[in-house]
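Recap from last week: sequence in, structure out.
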Amino acid sequence: MKEQLKIGWFEKNTKWLLLLPTIFILLALTIYPLIYSVIAMLHTINIRTGERTFVGLGNFIRMAKDPFFWNALKNTAIYTCSAVSVEFVIGLSLAVFLTTKITGRNVFRSLILAPMMLPPIVVAVIFKIIYIPDFGIINWFLALFGIKGIIWEASANTALISLVLVDIWEWTPFMFLILLAGLQAIPLDPYEAAEVDGATGLQIFRDITFPMLRPAILIALLLRIMDTLRIFDQIFIMTGGGPANATETMSIYIYRHGFRFTNIGYATAMSFIMLIITILISNIFIKRLKTEEVF
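Predicted structure tokens:
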């Protein structure tokens, strides 16, 4: 009888016993770092001795008075808005063009996706070579037309633009891929009805394609915005945040304080602000996505 009771208890709780390792890993990888980060942002931490000094909201007050923080936030906003906007326009244009019946469109689709397959660090190194003022291929090409070469990365006026161009080159294929999938999922019936009614191509795109593509557009924009907000590797390799903090985004500034200046508390507080910004933007897109009708 006792043996039967033990077997019955084990069978009843098997699912929880099997979930225990996963729950433990999740707690170790998410809950503990979150609790530690909340504690860290309220302290100044001496990374050498491990000594903590409670400062309360001192790190956030310091942040509000820090001009370099606001510069990094501004650079992040400019980088995100400009890169994602251009990627959306180009990606949508390519997706619409390659849904038409043209010769070799499958080949073009494969070629367009190639940049996205490269590791970001490799892309950064390639463009660092391309942007060399004296030997880079872009300035060489400009010289053929008598145009003076541009100091891409070393000038505060062009450094951020050069980074945005790299992001556009690498991640426009991602935008194209999502929008192409959205276009191919649109049923053909509305198009056939519009053609019978004599609608023009622009009217079809405005009244049928774009409204029915909105869910895919929102998903593509959300994923790219979240990705560009935390951009680090390419900027770190190409400019390191320079020159004169012209390309210093939030991720670079947080890295600088956390790992170079060992201001763990201040870096964690800035990371928390970025987390809040990302969550707010995500919630806006998700709420908008819920209101969209999925065909």
